[in-house]
Amino acid sequence: MSEIAQFPHCDQRILHAPSECEFCDGHPEWQELRKAWGIAFTGYRPRITLPECGRKVTRPGLAFSCRQARGHDGDCLPVPEHEALPCPADAARPPGSGSDHRRWGGNKPTSAKGNPSWPAETAASRMMYGDMGGRTAGRKNTKFLLKIAAAPAGVQALFLGLKLSGAVRWPWWAVLAPAWVTAACLVVGGGIVFAALGTWGRQ
Asked: What is the secondary structure of 134-168 as a DSSP string?
């Protein structure tokens, strides 16, 4: 293979754990590579940073405390977890930051669609992908958004946007933008004309 046809998400560094995202599950070999390379899946801490199991194990000629993450699968081992590197997307655009990748619809796992516990998408994301249901994290008006989510469709359209073409949702302020620009031009243009007339009249 000399090229990669398509990454599962807009941020190419994102890769979700098996069964969390249909797009990522379409690349099982990448998911296995993440495990082999010791890189955490998107949305997870590296297992080496989790509290250790600590279970005392005694075997013939060997005694140790398990250093695997608490609740690990498989046998106890005297070595730390292999997964030591963070997800590159989480490291570069951490949750709660101004660049939180979870606020862009094209970066969310398919299992998060319609889940209000996920971060609210940006206005640009809603225009591109529609409202995917995120309502929390990084938004000061979370309670307001939850009320809008429970409101009638007409109220939601007013605040969250109008579907004018297919699945593209246009915020009401974007729909009215041409009218605002026209009004602003008229006001500014009228001011210039009146100022010019006043100057001409005093001459």
From this structure: --BSS-TTHHHHHHHHTS-HHHHHHHH-EEEETTE
| Whole-angstrom distance, CA of residue 139 vs CA of residue 147 | 14
Q: What is the pLDDT of residue 197?
A: 64
In sequence order, what DSSP letters do the residues of the chain get, joined into one string?
A: --S----SSSSTT--PPTTT-HHHHT-HHHHHHHHHHTBPPTT---GGGSPB---EEEETTEEEE--SBTT-SSS--SS--S--B--HHHHHS-TTSTT-GGGSGGGS-GGGTT-TTSBPPPHHHHHHH------BSS-TTHHHHHHHHTS-HHHHHHHH-EEEETTEEE-HHHHSHHHHHHHHHHHHHHHHHHHHHHHHHT-
Q: Is the pTM of this model over 0.85?
A: no
Q: What is the pLDDT of residue 167?
A: 43
Give the chain's mean pLDDT: 80
Q: Are 41 and 89 a contacting pair, CB within 8 Å?
A: no
